[in-house]
Design goal:
It is a single chain. The chain is 31% helix and 26% strand. It is α+β, with helices and mostly antiparallel strands and 265 residues long. The N and C termini lie close together (9 Å). The longest helix is centred in the last third of the chain and has 16 residues.
Length: 265
């Protein structure tokens, strides 16, 4: 089989370890979406889309139009970059997702807002270096609006929680888990801690798989907070995250790639 990685970073630990597993029996190549030129022919048996830039999404759409399987698909990847569309789909599907309001610009909303409880403000477009902040009062909101005046944002009520994000990842039907101190906690984001899957609250692993079915994702991450007594609240969904340091993740990704390639053959 020929497996192609759409990424500018083929040395990423998950991809490098997956490549090492596949390379003895299969051809694995990397395609940098920023490098101009024609897509090598013949097309690969499957493409793994480990990039969310406009260039990468455009390349993935081109490959899909030519009949190539892409994991995750370009539409599913793009959907997870728009936090408004993400929330709308999740809530329509009955997932326990944070209620989300959208504003065309942070400064426009802040001009008339009167906060009486903490909120979480995020860039509408999910990207590296985007805005994610807890806002407790109007003074903080005004300061933030001066820093990001034209930024389209989504606003969610702040839900009281332990201060730890449950970082859950899925590759196909396999679920992996860890704990990370939330970037919204007073001390800021901390290191990721192992969390055995057996220690997740009942039903959470199945909830992650349901997210994958709703969003048509094969490799994805789901950020969940525990709002008390094991009650989950989904606060973010990511297409093809890093999934670093998770035993068995490269093996799961290699197996998924081969299944999708074989299904296309």
């Amino acid at each position: 089989m020929r497996i192609c990685l759409i990424t500018p970073e083929p040395g990423h630990p998950l991809l490098a370890d997956t490549t090492a597993l596949l390379a003895p029996d299969h051809e694995v190549e990397a395609l940098d979406p920023f490098t101009p030129g024609e897509v090598p022919l013949p097309l690969a048996d499957v493409y793994l889309l480990k990039s969310r830039t406009p260039h990468a999404l455009g390349l993935a759409r081109h490959l899909e139009q030519r009949g190539a399987p892409v994991v995750n698909s370009a539409p599913a990847t793009a959907l997870c970059q728009d936090r408004t569309e993400m929330a709308d789909l999740a809530l329509r599907a009955g997932l326990p997702f944070a209620a989300t309001r959208t504003h065309a610009s942070l400064s426009g909303w802040a001009a008339g807002a009167r906060l009486d409880a903490p909120v979480v403000v995020k860039s509408r477009r999910s990207r590296r270096g985007d805005l994610v902040a807890r806002v407790n009062d109007n003074a903080r909101l005004r300061d933030l609006a001066q820093e990001w005046p034209h930024e389209p944002v989504v606003v969610q009520e702040y839900a009281a929680n332990s201060g730890w994000d449950h970082k859950l990842w899925a590759i196909g039907d396999e679920v992996f888990s860890a704990l990370r101190r939330s970037e919204l906690s007073p001390g800021g984001r901390g290191p990721t801690r192992p969390l055995p899957l057996a220690e997740l609250p009942s039903g959470w692993a199945d909830l992650v798989r349901e997210v994958g079915a709703v969003f048509a994702l094969d490799v994805y991450g789901v950020d969940i907070i525990d709002t008390g007594g094991g009650t989950p609240l989904i606060v973010d969904i990511n297409a093809f995250p890093g999934i670093r340091g998770q035993a068995g993740a490269p093996e799961a990704l290699a197996a998924l790639a081969l299944r999708r390639a074989a299904g296309h053959a």
